């Protein structure tokens, strides 16, 4: 699974935590986002789905006053980059936390 899609699983909780801690919005966009390749192909190029022609990527956005927006975006970017790093599964805190959330 791509690092971008790892951010989504399970139930988007990793993304929700990033958003809650930074106040920024985090979106996963690009080719491969939709599980059904036929559905993705039918949506590609339609209004609102233009991103499906791009490689899979993370988009971070926010609306804050000019004096704090840079700090918040940087904070969100650092958290997302940390979540995207490949980690040995035996030491993967985030994956263990995601699995725990699925059980409870």
Automatic annotation (TrEMBL):
<protein>
    <submittedName>
        <fullName>Uncharacterized protein</fullName>
    </submittedName>
</protein>
């Amino acid at each position: 699974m791509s690092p971008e899609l790892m951010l989504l699983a399970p139930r988007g909780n990793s993304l929700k935590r990033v958003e809650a801690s930074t106040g920024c919005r985090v979106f996963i966009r690009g080719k491969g986002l939709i599980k059904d390749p036929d559905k993705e192909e039918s949506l590609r190029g339609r209004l609102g789905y233009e991103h499906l022609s791009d490689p899979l990527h993370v988009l971070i956005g926010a609306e804050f006053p000019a004096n704090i927006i840079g700090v918040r975006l940087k904070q969100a970017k650092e958290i997302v980059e940390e979540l995207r790093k490949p980690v040995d599964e035996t030491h993967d805190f985030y994956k263990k936390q995601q699995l725990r959330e699925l059980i409870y």
